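Key idea: predict the complex, not the pieces.
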Amino acid sequence: MSHNSFGQMFRFTTWGESHGPALGVVIDGCPSGLRIDAETIQRDLDRRKPGQSKYTTQRREADEVKILSGVFEDDRTDGLRTTGTPISLMIENTDQRSKDYGDIRDKYRPGHADFTYHQKYGIRDYRGGGRSSARETAARVAAGAVAKLVIPDVQIRASLVQVGPHKIDYSRFDWDEVDNNPFFCADPVAAKEWATYLDGIRKEGSSVGAVIEVVAENVPVGLGAPVYGKLDQDLASAMMSINAVKAVEIGAGFEAAELTGVTNADEMRAGQEQPYFLSNHAGGILGGISNGDPVVVRFAVKPTSSILVPRQTVTEKNQNADIITKGRHDPCVGIRAVPVGESMMALVLADHLLRHRAQTGREGGIGHE
Amino acid sequence: MSHNSFGQMFRFTTWGESHGPALGVVIDGCPSGLRIDAETIQRDLDRRKPGQSKYTTQRREADEVKILSGVFEDDRTDGLRTTGTPISLMIENTDQRSKDYGDIRDKYRPGHADFTYHQKYGIRDYRGGGRSSARETAARVAAGAVAKLVIPDVQIRASLVQVGPHKIDYSRFDWDEVDNNPFFCADPVAAKEWATYLDGIRKEGSSVGAVIEVVAENVPVGLGAPVYGKLDQDLASAMMSINAVKAVEIGAGFEAAELTGVTNADEMRAGQEQPYFLSNHAGGILGGISNGDPVVVRFAVKPTSSILVPRQTVTEKNQNADIITKGRHDPCVGIRAVPVGESMMALVLADHLLRHRAQTGREGGIGHE
Amino acid sequence: MSHNSFGQMFRFTTWGESHGPALGVVIDGCPSGLRIDAETIQRDLDRRKPGQSKYTTQRREADEVKILSGVFEDDRTDGLRTTGTPISLMIENTDQRSKDYGDIRDKYRPGHADFTYHQKYGIRDYRGGGRSSARETAARVAAGAVAKLVIPDVQIRASLVQVGPHKIDYSRFDWDEVDNNPFFCADPVAAKEWATYLDGIRKEGSSVGAVIEVVAENVPVGLGAPVYGKLDQDLASAMMSINAVKAVEIGAGFEAAELTGVTNADEMRAGQEQPYFLSNHAGGILGGISNGDPVVVRFAVKPTSSILVPRQTVTEKNQNADIITKGRHDPCVGIRAVPVGESMMALVLADHLLRHRAQTGREGGIGHE
Amino acid sequence: MSHNSFGQMFRFTTWGESHGPALGVVIDGCPSGLRIDAETIQRDLDRRKPGQSKYTTQRREADEVKILSGVFEDDRTDGLRTTGTPISLMIENTDQRSKDYGDIRDKYRPGHADFTYHQKYGIRDYRGGGRSSARETAARVAAGAVAKLVIPDVQIRASLVQVGPHKIDYSRFDWDEVDNNPFFCADPVAAKEWATYLDGIRKEGSSVGAVIEVVAENVPVGLGAPVYGKLDQDLASAMMSINAVKAVEIGAGFEAAELTGVTNADEMRAGQEQPYFLSNHAGGILGGISNGDPVVVRFAVKPTSSILVPRQTVTEKNQNADIITKGRHDPCVGIRAVPVGESMMALVLADHLLRHRAQTGREGGIGHE
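Result:
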């Protein structure tokens, strides 16, 4: 049991606070012999990095990753390789400006973990939210980059599909558009509209929520296990562990409640080598196990809690007060959650791939395979 | 790591197939000295039991629970008590009618785990779905009844809040109505409308999805832990592990995406002894830790996959076929998911209460508590 | 985390008390497709069964195992097969004679868990020791029989090598002798001497300790992992978890302390396909990982604590008293620990074989393999 | 499941190789509010540090620990305090001299993990043993220093009690002597004899094994749990996880095999408030649970495998060769295992103390407590 670890066979443990000297992740269970380099990990980190547009926090962090262990290179290895031992990755914090947070030392920010951390632990690192800061997701993204090495054939992509009340039009959905706008949005028209909308939100000193869709293609059949090792269960857990996430759905999700058994059924047809499905309401998972279709997950992120509009709150001493959260924050923290969602998908799939290997040795064979 | 266990400190492991001799659960970590009896567990099981109305499967199971271990009674204990050792509960299967399922031996039922189990394991117990049957949830409900002994002050209730496209009207919400209709519905007007609607669905040989809301009141502040031990994360995992669940949300859930930071903020005011919240968009959880407000979870259940309308599928040998799933099924499996949702809430809270105890010994004290 | 489970990928959970209705085990993670039958499991249980000679307890238990889940058979499976779902095994208690234990209700038996259970849990099932009874080992032996299906090429054998101060002569060691005497002893001469010695001990109403040696041959190279997943670490944990065990050693064990680096070195020579070792002080494990040589474990069992000689103790109310433990006990509980040791070896190796599979997928290959 | 983590509630994960940039440990589950400082941790690290006498390796490492997360200080905390979030500790490697190890790139050193790592992972960091180096124990000692904060009332001490064939005389045992000689030996006379003996061993270019005894006093009654959460089981696992350890025993240990039930019984007498024991063959543990008496563990360390005497081995290409392991090694690696043994004891006890808290909430009470 660990409060700061995730995964079973591909297991990672994150550490670090927003305003401490560094944050990092230890990955345990990564197979050996995989080619790895800091540049690949850095590329994923750079996508999540703050300060890249006016729609994300202006905090500027280099977010430079260092590989401290678990890799080796000599003249025979053809580059740096994983060795099967724990991979320790560290990112030093460089732009902390602790003074920005001094005035919230005694007050609980609504929507933040201030109150609950203080109640539970009797002490809290209030500088930038400490452990509850979205900065922790940098460690996930670094781990996710390693996870992708374990599942090289799986393609994972994500798009912002809703900002506030504004949803994308799926008829315009184009993965190639995701990197053409500051929102990781697959609908270029929606992206333009969101720009205007978010400018307004930002100027009001407010913030807004969002929905992210993550899709994994080419997932092998068989990942996941009944009954409490379901792939969708672990995906739900993974996405809900991201800061500010309040909802998760797989495939048809909440819409499935409205469907009948007739319309919801993903009918099957015989294929060349394998049967295939005529629809994917299931989101690629049946009975908790991947069925070969794209794994589709959506999750909702609440609006950033740190806003410039004054809100009512209380002090640590249980006295009424108002609060404005200054500092540098995302008007829509959901934007930066897009690469984080991809990383969590990679981490869950890598873990289940390794688990699957262990489960399915069938010595002695069996008749009707 | 275990595919069939859930929880960390209050940990349960279920076993059994739909058409095997029995199913059961082993609970490990239940504190000692709690008064327990088979009747209390039976009462919860009876709420979930099939065959209670025409809206649930006509399979008739006594679902009689036996306590096989972990309890003790003598003239000093004032009744049966838990001893701190594993509590083994068993329910024998009595009404199995295996013949009903013989014709689906070779075909995959759309929406079921048939295809994925077969692909993963190379063998499947097709009788009633085997391990993937909703019968497994009886074991959860039995375990949940024990979990409730650990959190006697917490009140957990649930209501069906949507059947197909028909939602309840929250202005009529009344917990006292839940046991007055066959749908566990807190809105008596909606319940009547659903009766008519579901009669139609049943006669069509179809089925329909549903949404369940579970609310836990009087939850102590402090349950849950950053970052991968979040209470909402475990609730999402718990609910998604229930058969046919496709979506989970906490508090405002997906609606949070549409809100601004100003409207979503749960403002605080100073109370007599503790501060209190003016709203509960958070669903009782901040930063993964309970804040003392009601914990609110909703989850969506897809329509029962076993329907009498023929659907296209393939055989195990990858040949096209049509299939009708005879047998005795629920037109809306979401109904029986209501008590299951309550049980999962109890199991998660009991686990986190025990974990909380371990985490919060603060020897040596600290200044600003 | 579970106090009553062992293993990671091949994980079992035992439950049950000495004088409850039954005891059992749930095995989670057993691969699918393995041929299994109750007879094979029964055969192992019968070796451990009490009442087989005057040197073991006269309690007579049928110890008949029932397979309740996790298996399936139809006309295509060529017998009963595992399905990959949890295998639940149950053994009903038949010969309990609870009255024998009535007079120890209020007194702590020296060397038993009575005092510590009572202190920890505030309640104890004193009938036959409850959960602390050696009867729990029947559940392990049943699980071990299933574990052996996972490692069919590994040969596991054990011998009693010391009873009280009397050790075997290794020059007479012959595995074929183990089943020719009531002590599972590979030295037939020692077995005869022990018979006389143990008759004396039994007549005195006393008991005596023992040492067991377990050897696994044909173990694949590579099982185990640095640093806290060492094979020897798990073997130590496994053997120490058996009732009354006070010491465990691997290979040269405590004798290694007396050796120099020169004599202790297991030198290597080039073999036809693989290198081989000229000695096995390591007991088949280097750096926590199996090296292909026989895995050799020895463990010491203390004398049975239940004896007929009066000993000083206290009551639950902290008053001085004397105690004689009547009932039917083993004069040397180490004898029946022999098959238990074999089972624990099988359980650890099966678990590590499955773990090994997950760890060693090396996609992308590597140069110097 | 994690191969590089230990503990359940107080759980630590180590990472790092002998010749990588750094090594470290992440501690998860440490309660909040404990006063902590780098100096306290450093003090324990300095005891284990190499290069302190001619009897340990001449490698000179500053072993300077940095606290990277999990702590906080402001004007209200009275010094640095733990916050309940993961504590990340890092020690940079400074004196690596990789060239020393270049010639063992292609050969397996007998007694080392070279062969098994290579077989398992297909790649190995041969520089100083990489992950299998005893340098990993620095991370344990750092973690152990934090563990001691959780159990401030428990006193843990250890002594080397045997070097090669030379045992201490327990009649001269004096804890105060431990820090007066370079062997952490409680018998000053033995320490002098060992000095002469080890000088000889060192000059021969050989090495020798040792036995360490660790004693924890003032351990609360009730730590540990039946059946696979036994305190002695976890202690066995902990000690066996230390590099080069081949044997572990609790209390009377292997000697218990020679005793009768009459002599082995730890009789009890009524005390003022609690009963007490007249002897401690049990080593402070009954039925897997601490009984309040000193917890006594001994473990054997094999002789350092790296010696200057040529030994036969093979190359990676399975060709015969001789090998001398140059570099800077301990003639008796058991010496530096003394503080490591203390640390492992602290880590196991801290973990079980936290587990105990979770297990023993007895809401509703019970009559005969």
